[in-house]
Design brief:
InterPro entries: Mal/L-sulf/L-lact_DH-like_ah, Mal/L-sulf/L-lact_DH-like_NADP, Mal/L-sulfo/L-lacto_DH-like_sf, Malate/L-lactate_DH-like. Keywords: Oxidoreductase. GO terms for molecular function: oxidoreductase activity. It comes from Anaerobutyricum hallii. The chain is of the alpha+beta class. It has 3 domains: 103 residues, Malate/L-lactate/L-sulpholactate dehydrogenase, four-helix barrel (Hypothetical Oxidoreductase Yiak, Chain: A, domain 1); 193 residues, Malate/L-lactate/L-sulpholactate dehydrogenase, NADPH binding domain (Ribosomal Protein S8, Chain: A, domain 1), CATH 3.30.1370; 43 residues, Wheat Germ Agglutinin (Isolectin 2), domain 1 (2-Layer Sandwich). It contains 11 helices and 12 strands. Helix 4 links the parallel strand 3 and strand 4. Helix 1 crosses helix 2. The longest helix is centred in the N-terminal third of the chain and has 19 residues. The radius of gyration is 20 Å and the shape is globular. The mean pLDDT is 97.
């Protein structure tokens, strides 16, 4: 485990992006998403990926010079053509638009087409919540799940995240993908030749399996809750792909396995200005009363305390904000490759965790 100060992480990420041709402003906005994601503890979607994003840029899979454009605009809706830009750039433009529209009309929808992997949804919904909004974001991805009763990778485990503000505290945040477990857990089991529960995936014949070696070899992840995860996966494609005339999961290639190819995922953002929909101002009081009802509900034997969604992530975020960002070794290895590629050194130190 490494400990690196937030400013140092910002410096390395900003320099790397600026050397690819990004403006200081764009580089800072992209880096902010990735660093916050590490601070939330979602390391699979944070700065670890910047080296790979830049490799994708170099091979033409991400358009560095893209200027995303709104191709549909209305009083409470818009559609952004991201033009193959890095996902964080286009998504932040779309989030800003959603908040702007919601402040005028109360509710807004913004869709995005021709985008790339945007990282973790937590950052974007938290940004909306900090401005007094209920925020939701979702994205389709390349196929990696089987349809219940089917075989092979047909559906995407399309992520969904939401957030809403909490008086005097960090927002409530919730961020999931729709498979029983993340592919990362399957790949880790493959690496260590471990068996997995047969509820996680199916083999090439569509039969539940304990053998993770079938993943990427004809097997597929299973949707959480069976038909429930299937239904939500379809919902995400409807709101993002259908609604924007963008790609659905069947047309999407992995952002990281085919670096020269465009990812071209679709996103959907829903934003509600709570002050307009709830003008009597009782939202936060009712919310807090309900959250305390949950937190003070009976605990199972051996449970010390109950938590609200996102609490664990915000606790890590606050600790990293105060003391420096804690980086696991796989993230550190990727950052070291990034620093070497731009002839920079990282000022960090080893810690026990």
């Amino acid at each position: 485990m490494k400990l690196v100060m937030k400013k140092e992480l910002e410096r390395i990420c900003n320099v790397a992006l600026e050397k690819q041709g990004y403006s200081k402003e764009d580089a800072a906005r992209i880096s902010e998403v990735l660093i916050a994601t590490d601070m939330f503890g979602i390391h699979s979607h944070g700065t670890k990926n910047l080296y790979m994003y830049i490799e994708k840029m170099k091979q033409g899979g991400i358009n560095i010079k893209a200027n995303p454009e709104f191709i549909v605009e209305g009083p409470a809706f818009a559609v952004l053509d991201a033009k193959d830009c890095i996902g964080m750039k286009g998504t932040r433009i779309a989030i800003d638009k959603a908040v702007e529209l919601a402040k005028k009309t109360g509710v807004a929808y913004v869709g995005v087409k021709n985008s790339c992997h945007f990282g973790a949804g937590t950052f974007y919904v938290a940004e909306m919540a900090k401005q007094g909004m209920f925020g939701m974001i979702m994205s389709n991805v390349d196929p990696n799940m089987a349809v219940p009763g089917g075989k092979g990778m047909t559906l995407g485990n399309n992520p969904i995240a939401y957030a809403f503000p909490r008086k005097g505290q960090h927002p409530i945040t919730f961020d999931i993908a729709l498979s029983v477990v993340a592919a990362l857990k399957i790949n880790k089991a493959k690496m260590y030749h471990q068996e997995i529960p047969d509820s996680w995936m199916v083999d090439p014949d569509g039969i539940p399996t304990t053998n993770p070696q079938y993943y990427q070899e004809g097997g597929a992840l299973l949707p959480m809750g069976g038909h429930k995860g299937y239904g939500f996966s379809l919902l995400v494609d409807a709101l993002s792909g259908f609604m924007t005339s963008g790609n659905t999961c069947k047309d999407i290639e992995s952002w990281c396995f085919n670096l020269p190819n465009k990812n071209r995922v679709s996103h959907a953002i829903i934003c509600i200005d709570i002050s307009k929909v709830n003008p009597d101002g009782h939202f936060e009081d009712i919310e807090e009363d309900y959250l305390q009802y949950i937190l003070n509900s009976p605990k199972a034997k051996g449970t010390d305390h109950l938590m609200v969604p996102g609490q664990r992530e915000w606790e890590k975020y606050d600790k990293d904000e105060a003391n420096g960002v804690r980086i696991p070794e796989d993230v550190a290895d990727s950052l070291l490759k990034l620093a070497d590629s731009i002839d920079e050194k990282i000022d960090w130190r080893d810690i026990d965790e």
